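Worked example

This section walks through a single chain of length 64. The input is the sequence exactly as stored; nothing has been trimmed or padded.
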Amino acid sequence: MLTPYNRYEKLSELESDLRKPNPSFLREEQSPLLERNPLGFWKAMTGILFVANLVLLYLHVTHN
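Given that input, the structure is written out below as tokens.
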């Protein structure tokens, strides 16, 4: 969150960071869903695959 205390005091400081970014700003803050919530990821994946199998089964039964 940006607060007045986090702002640059001089325009030259901002220009310097734009030319050579601070490494702490370059890292990603949000990790992938698999790392954050592995159980939720696999539950969602299982649900998607289950629905896909039901659709394929329906298509197989109706076309034979």
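What to look for: The mean pLDDT is 87.
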